[in-house]
ATP-binding cassette domain-containing protein (Streptomyces lanatus), 291 residues
Amino acid sequence: MQRDLRLDNVGRRYGLRGPWVLRGIHLTVPPGTLIRIEGPNGTGKSTLLRLLARIDAPSEGRVSGAPRTAYVPERFPTALPFTALGYLTHLGTVHGLSRPAATRAALEWLDRFGAAPYARTPMAQLSKGSSQKVAVVQALLAEPELLVLDEAWTGLDSDARAELERAVAERTAGGTAVVFVDHDPRRLAGVPDATYTVRDSGLDLRTEQPPEEAAGPRVTVVAQGPSGGQLPGDAQRAVVAAEEPAPGTHRLTVPASHSDILLRALLTARPPWHVVSVRQEPAGPDTESRR
C-alpha cells in the first residue's frame, strides 16, 4: 500500500463549470511529516484539505495513495442523535475496535481534553468548545496514518489547545502525517517540516519562517547519556538544537509541544538517560507582546 499521499496536477472548481478554486496543485505528504498550509481567507485552504482527506474529488488531476485518514473540519456537525460517548464509541467500532475497547479509548481521549464530564451529554447540547473537543477526539480515536486538521484549535480552551499540540507531536513521532491550517502563526511554531502558501489558486513552498514563528516557546532539557552518543528513538525528531557542553552531558532544545516526547524517549531508552533539568524558555519579546 502506498502510504505517501500525492496530489498530481490537481484542480478543483466551484461546481461543474464554475471558476477554479485550486489548479495545478502538486503535493506529496510522506508518513511522519508535519505540513502547515497557510494563505489569505478565500484562497482555497479548506478545499485543499478536503481534497487531501478525500472528502472532495478533484475536478482535474489525480490523488493517489491510501493512508488511513482522519479529518477535523472547520465546522463540526453537532445535531447528531448521540451522546458524545455514544458517538465516539460508535466510531471506534467502525474503526474495528470492540465496543468495550472503543468506549475505553473514547473516555481516555475525552479525559485528556478535559471533556470527560460531558461524555454522556447529547451532542446537540454541547457548547462550541466541547463539541470541538469531540471533533478532535473522533479523529485521534481512528489512529490515522494521515491526520488533516482544518482550524482544529478554534474554540478550544488553552489546556485543550496544548493537548492537541502534544497529540500532534505524538502522532508525527509515531509515523502519522499531519496537515493543518490554523489562523495563529504561533501554532506549532518552528515545528512543521514544510509550510505551503495557497495563493492565486496555486501552492508555493515557503522555505523561510518569518520572525514571529521563530519566537515560539521552547523547552531546554539537560540530560546525561553516552558521550557523543546518538539520541534515542523519537528524541532525534523532536530536538531542534543539541550541544554537549561536557562529555556525557547533553543540552537539548525542543519546541514546547514536543517536550513530552523528548522526555519519554530519554527515560525509556535502554539504558535510560538521566534528566538533570527541564526549563521552559521564554517565547521571545515579540511573541510575549502579542499575548
